[in-house]
Amino acid sequence: MLGLNQEELAGWLGVAQATVSRWEGTALLPGGNTLGEETDELETALDDIVNGYVRGAKAGAGPAVLIVEDSDEAFWAAHPDKEGVPVAVQQVAAGLAQRRLAAAGVAAHIRAGTERPNV
């Protein structure tokens, strides 16, 4: 699905690798969700973010700027509908969107949210 090993997933979620191993063994996460449900939610969020970046880029309008946040809190403040989704999902989505846009001939640059131009 996401292509992550236990250590990588643990890093994204801010838990120990042993915790992820235990979750896989019992297939039940805190709060009653299964690992499969959590993975599905992360994949859906990843797809939503990638598609949002791609929709926001305009062919022929110069390079697209893909803004990424540097913390979960900043990500949730900028995207309240994604509260609970780790900022790492947004960061991965930006990279995937950049590759998808490049394949379509649209240049895209990833910029930190702290580098937003004043509007």
Features:
mainly alpha
Secondary-structure blueprint of this entry?
Layout: H1 6-13, H2 17-26, H3 35-56, E1 64-68, H4 72-78, H5 87-103, E2 108-112
Parallel strand pairs: 1-2
Helix pairs in contact: 1-2, 3-5
In brief:
This protein is mostly helical and 119 residues long.
Kindly report how far apart the N and C termini lie.
39 Å
Mind describing the biggest β-sheet? 2 strands, parallel
- What level of helicity do the residues show? 40-55%
Low-confidence stretches: none
Task: Tell me the number of strands.
Answer: 2
Task: Walk me through the structure.
The chain has helices at 6-13, 17-26, 35-56, 72-78, 87-103; strands spanning 64-68, 108-112. It is mostly helical. The chain has one domain. The protein has a two-stranded parallel sheet. The chain is elongated. The mean pLDDT is 79.
